[in-house]
Specification:
This protein is mostly helical and 147 residues long. The chain is 71% helix and 0% strand. The radius of gyration is 15 Å and the shape is globular.
Length: 147
């Protein structure tokens, strides 16, 4: 799947009503051989900045999950693997932060939406869809860089 197809798929999942975290995970599920039902369930609680706590952006946490599946470590004594994937997480976070100025859900809503949209839950159409697309695209790029 191309970068644009992957981004479009993530946006489509989000527009269907999946959480931002789910949309990103589902767009990459086949690539990392993740069962779609497991993908939906494991990533579903990270939307809204982690269960609507408005903390770390859900689209980004979904991307972090995919990075872990694609390039993570398995053994507790694999310090090299752990540090390598942690560095990738920080790099992806930096790339999204460079674009939006923050990766915190609440700060993104304040900066890019308006209180009335958030109250009406229509902020998804203005900022969240943009971040889902951006996170999916940047994740795609990072995965391609290491191939």
């Amino acid at each position: 799947m191309t970068r644009q197809e992957t981004v479009d798929l993530a946006v489509d999942y989000f527009k269907q009503g999946y959480a931002c975290s789910q949309a990103v995970v589902l767009a990459f599920a086949e690539r990392v051989k993740l069962d779609p039902t497991v993908a939906k369930r494991i990533s579903g609680t990270f939307g809204g900045g982690m269960g609507r706590l408005r903390k770390k952006c859900g689209a980004l946490t979904g991307a972090f999950m995919i990075l872990g599946l694609a390039q993570g470590y398995e053994r507790p004594d694999d310090m090299e693997g752990k540090l390598a994937v942690y560095a990738k997480i920080r790099e992806l976070n930096r790339r999204v932060e460079d674009t939006f100025g923050t990766t915190q859900c609440n700060e993104l809503l304040i900066k890019y939406s308006n209180p009335q949209y958030v109250k009406e839950r229509s902020h998804h159409q203005d900022i969240c869809v943009r971040i889902v697309a951006d996170a999916a695209g940047k994740l795609y790029d990072m995965l391609e860089e290491t191939v």
